[in-house]
TrEMBL record:
It comes from Insulibacter thermoxylanivorax. It catalyses: an N-acyl-L-alpha-aminoacyl-tRNA + H2O = an N-acyl-L-amino acid + a tRNA + H(+). It is found in: Cytoplasm. The gene is pth. The record marks N10 as: Discriminates between blocked and unblocked aminoacyl-tRNA. The record marks D94 as: Stabilizes the basic form of H active site to accept a proton. The keyword Disulfide bond does not apply. This is Peptidyl-tRNA hydrolase. Monomer. Hydrolyzes ribosome-free peptidyl-tRNAs (with 1 or more amino acids incorporated), which drop off the ribosome during protein synthesis, or as a result of ribosome stalling. Its EC number is 3.1.1.29. HAMAP family: Pept_tRNA_hydro_bact. TRNA binds at Y15, Y67, N69, N115. The active site is at H20.
Amino acid sequence: MVKWIAGLGNPGGKYEDNRHNVGFMAVDRMAERWDLRWRADAKCRAYVAEGRAPNGESVVLLKPQTYMNLSGESVKAYMNYYKLPLEDFIVIYDDMDTEVGQLRLRYKGSAGGHNGIKSIIQHVGTEEFKRVRIGISRPPQGMEVVHYVLSDFTKAERPLIEEVLDRATEAMEMALTESFDKVMAKFNSKKRS
């Protein structure tokens, strides 16, 4: 049984450090920690890293290269080609309703205005898949959402992001062997346990 984890973002250097790309940052951190190598997979228009996490569990990391709004095309193509069940899927993405530096894990829900999640829901045909939301906070008064999500984290926010990427990696490592309920109970708490 393979767990597959998709981080959402936009491809290309100009988006690399954007708030909207924190899903990519999370799976990059996992690949680095777990010593997995990225390769291009043309069939599903994604970068894929597969292998074993330190606990010996099989895992696949996915970075859709379709741009955020079409993330579902890549996820669905990967799922269909490799015949993977949706219950083993976890998606990681940015969330404006969660403070910078916070993690929020849930089983299901609406897209909440997130176009990447909206696309995945459309393509897989259900809202029932596990999510890890990484907080990016709301834009300052008067700043358009699109400009905000495509802006980089501030120097003051960087340490919070580094820490939350580590916590997301720990959470996903735990999710490979424990129930998602247990992972939620541990990592949804405000402070590090």
